[in-house]
# Entry
Amino acid sequence: MLTAFDLFQAILFVNGSQCARRIHLEHELKAALSAYPCSVDGLRMASDELSARDRDRAAKPMEDEDVRGRLAFAEVRVAAEAMSTRRAEFGGLDGFVPDQERLSAIREDIVAFYAGVGVHVGDVPVRVVRTLPEPYASKGFSALTADLGDWKRHGVEPGIYFLESALQPLFTEYFVAHEIVHVWLGLISPDDSCTILEEGLAEYLSIFGYIGHRYGASAARKLHRLYRLNSSANSRFESYVDGLKQLLFVIDAVGGDAEVLAIARGGRAALNEAFQEVLAGAAEQPSGGGVQPDVLGEGRASAKSLVLAVPRSLVVSASAYQVAVVARDGMTVRELAHDTGMSLTAVDAGLRELDGRALITLRKAGQVVSRNLALEHVERGHLRYDFRDAGSV
# Structure
């Protein structure tokens, strides 16, 4: 059964946020939000309940745990307001039904969109199951994309599988749109691999293509920024960002995304060959000269602005973020504690974290701010916060 937490996560992606890690946000909010239904009213009721907790936090100097809770509540408040006032923008997120009928409708919409940009993915089965097929059921996965290799090795029919309990608003749409690209390339060239570049193509088409088409270019940018430009050091997530960088490099070199999609229709080997030609400087622009119009509209510009201009490293703890927002040159630790409502211990931890990242300089044994270098990153919206303990980011 979906809850207000599932709706909140979807709106968090679409509406944008200063948060950089939705995974750790669960520790702060899941229990409270899961007590309410997946609806606008449920999200509003949860927000009202959390308001009382927030007032209790503000009544005393906040420790790191309190700061995390307060920022988490601020995210819920923004999401509830956005859902109430801009409901039409979010389509079927409110009242999302996690069943096979809904999943099939999502698949058909994605297939139709891809066909419109020249990617004819064919019949990709998308199934809701109670348990994943073996040998994957015991691995703890919530979803699976099986290709011809899985069929040969394990007898698993190719397609995309979702655990019934894993269907969520927005993320399900993104996941199906992303994974269909892998299935499509696997059907064309099942024995080849182009790994990172293929991940980049799947990200480009699913987020800056389909999600942009479904919810608008702004939502696509915010989803990628929140979900990918975070503080994760997991190499799997690195490959999505690095793959998108590679793909954008190839798109620029060959003259547009239509050219890359034409190459992709030749399979993974063709993509690999094109990438190697680009690296060697041998790729040629189309004979017409200049860059061709992109089939995804402003998708390429959106993707480039994010992967080139938004640093993944500027993610700090909640306490450090609060300090960075308030700190001004010459302020003492006690003044910061007063202005942030935080305890001296929490302020000190935040200052030392920022100092260790070269985002702030201190004097007088770390008790006075000499210069808040993080402030310009705050003003640009590049500094984001995480919900892990201070100093662990």
